[in-house]
Amino acid sequence: MAEQAAAGLLWVTAGRLDELTPDSAVRVDLAGLPVCLARSAGAVHALLDECSHGQVALSEGDVEDGYVECWLHGSRFDLTSGVPTGPPATVPVPVYAVRITDGEIQVALPAPATDIETAAGTPS
Ligand code: FES
């Protein structure tokens, strides 16, 4: 289910909070956009599920203390900002706003990526 957010953004349901284990990540496809949904340090975060160094899935990395570590070469990304803390990655990964409504995780996506109404996915 999708709902209009601020200009240029659309809130898309990504799954349920109780299905996302603390210090873990899952990949969800939202309107064709691969999103890494991670729960850590008391919050849920959403970022593009693609390392900016080698284009592998960040959702397959380890999550701890508000960071996800790329499984391939070890760069750690701040889940709040998407900024890598060290090499080899040097470019931030796009992050998306998250809100929890009645136990549902909703992610604000850029409108161009959400022009398909049946955008919702669920963590697997
Ligand atoms: S592919 Fe992620 S750090 Fe190299």
- Give a quick account of the main beta sheet: strands, pairing sense, barrel closure: 4 strands, antiparallel
Give the termini separation.
Answer: 17 Å
Overall residue-averaged pLDDT value: 89
Q: What's the gyration radius in Å? A: 13 Å
Strand-pairing-aware structural class: mainly beta
Shape: globular
Instruction: Give me the number of helical elements.
Output: 0
Could you tell me which ligands this complex binds, including any ions or cofactors? FE2/S2 (inorganic) cluster
CATH topology-level name: Rieske Iron-sulfur Protein
Amount of beta strand: 35-45%
- The topology string of helices and strands comes to EEEEEEEEEEE
For the secondary structure, the number of strands is 11
Q: What number of structural domains do the residues give?
A: 1
Primary descriptors:
single chain, 124 residues, Rieske Iron-sulfur Protein, 4-stranded antiparallel beta sheet, 0% helix, globular, binds FE2/S2 (inorganic) cluster, Non-heme iron oxygenase ferredoxin subunit, iron
